[in-house]
Amino acid sequence: MQLEQPGAPVIAVKARKDLELALNALATGKTAEAGPHVRDALKHAPDNPDVRFIAGTYAERTKDFAEAQKEYEAAIAVFPTHFAAQLALGNLLLVQRDAPNAMPHLEKALAVGPNSWKAHYLLAEAYLRSDEKDVDKIKFHANRAIELGKGKATGARSHWRWPTRWPATGTPLARSSINSSRTIPRIPASHGPRRAWRCWR
């Protein structure tokens, strides 16, 4: 297995095998089976950012969001430019309605993957949910998400319905605001060390 993000630390051989088994289990919806493999990978390579990222993905699948956040943060602490971990953490915080803290992680993900439609999509959502809405940034990132995502971002056209005239700063964007119950898509588990950093580029 070849890591696809340049500069990322190499995974130890034993941890690599455990990670493959965990990814296969997650990709086929067998979350419970992934658990032991994730724990074994953590034993063999506790400081590897990809291992910590997959541990975060597993925790998020099991709805242990506090643990997921901890694992994503651990991955970033080791390798700050880890695209998938920055994107996943930003996504997790955004789903938890914490747009202000999600933005820095999404911006860092975008710096690594400037052509990621998903990073643009999530940043548009983050700016839309923030208290002080930056209309220009919302429009820019939404349009880039649609442009880069092509068929993947078809839902964005109906999701962001631009008003004829934008309201003043601080005024709720009633026609374009996201439904608070909407679930933002997450990083597929199958897009782990081999593909995760490029899955939304």
What can you see in these coordinates?
The protein is mostly helical and 201 residues long. The chain has nine helices and no strands. Helix 2 packs antiparallel against helix 3, helix 5 (83-95) runs antiparallel to helix 6 (99-112) and helix 6 packs antiparallel against helix 7. The chain is elongated. The two termini are 20 Å apart.
Topology at a glance:
Elements: H1 13-27, H2 31-44, H3 49-61, H4 65-78, H5 83-95, H6 99-112, H7 117-129, H8 135-149, H9 154-159
Helix pairs in contact: 1-2, 2-3, 3-4, 4-5, 5-6, 5-7, 6-7, 7-8
Task: Provide a compact summary of the structure.
This protein has 201 residues and is an all-alpha fold. 58% of the residues lie in helices and 0% in strands.
Quaternary: single chain
Q: Number of helical runs? A: 9
> What is the helix content?
55-70%
Percentage of residues in DSSP E strands? under 5%
Describe the structure using short key phrases.
mainly alpha, 201 residues, disordered C terminus
